[in-house]
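Sample pair:
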Amino acid sequence: MNVTELAHTTVLLEPTVDGCLNDPAGIYVDGTFGRGGHSRLLLSKLAPEGRLFGIDKDPRAIETGQQLHAEDNRFDIIQGSFADMKNLLAQRGIHKINGILLDLGVSSPQLDDAERGFSFLRDGPLDMRMNPDAGLSAAEWVATESEKEIARVLKEYGEERFAKRMARAIVIQREKAPITRTLELAELLRAANPAWEKHKHPATRAFQAIRIAVNNELGDLEQILDDSIELLVAGGRLSVISFHSLEDRMVKRFIRAQEKGRDLPPGLPVMEQDLGKTMKKVGKAIMPDDEEVERNGRARSAVLRVAERLA
């Protein structure tokens, strides 16, 4: 499929890019390049000497990135995980950057392409990998994980209250025959869900949870948040869009912890600079306005948080 065949509407475009940008001549990383919406706007605001790296696991995103590199040599695309950003940049002789931009979760082209296996509304192979050439597919994951682990993932990552029932249904079915198709799994989960939210498919939370597990999304996020402290220059910005409450909670808690600094016993005679504070939040969390949600329903759950590296 041609990379341009599936449209993608970039969420919170202007505030995310503006939140990240602090020096037009600096070095930036779009850790979730996707189809390049944020990168293109960021490039338009950079000085001639500015540089931007895009990182993505998805081979189709890499194709789009290569096209952008051909148009603008200030941009380079790297295939990999943003969790490995520090190493990927070090390999290119870069150890400090001015801004990191992350647009978490699955992109519209991935979701809309049935062959990628992300959607419970379209039949396709049960894959769900951001990089279909690496790691376990969702089909392999549901075939090999224990019932207990499947239930844990559905409960913790999907906040699914019927996680145990769904995990039991998966295990019973896989003993009869492998679960290899998206609609097959969606129907299985629907049948195991005795009550679901109005206007929401009964497999929504479970599919989301399995995707998060297959792609190690929360582990990757934890890694890049920790590494951002070392990567960003003083005044550098971290700009993160989350679509999942667990991701947003992680980002919020990380920023709050960096603002607070070390946990010390009360009454200790310490100077402010000894508290180990590394970041401060920039403004309040930003959500899409009604107009953006009407234009792009998938923006509804988006939350943008921005933090700045302290000196």
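The radius of gyration is 21 Å.
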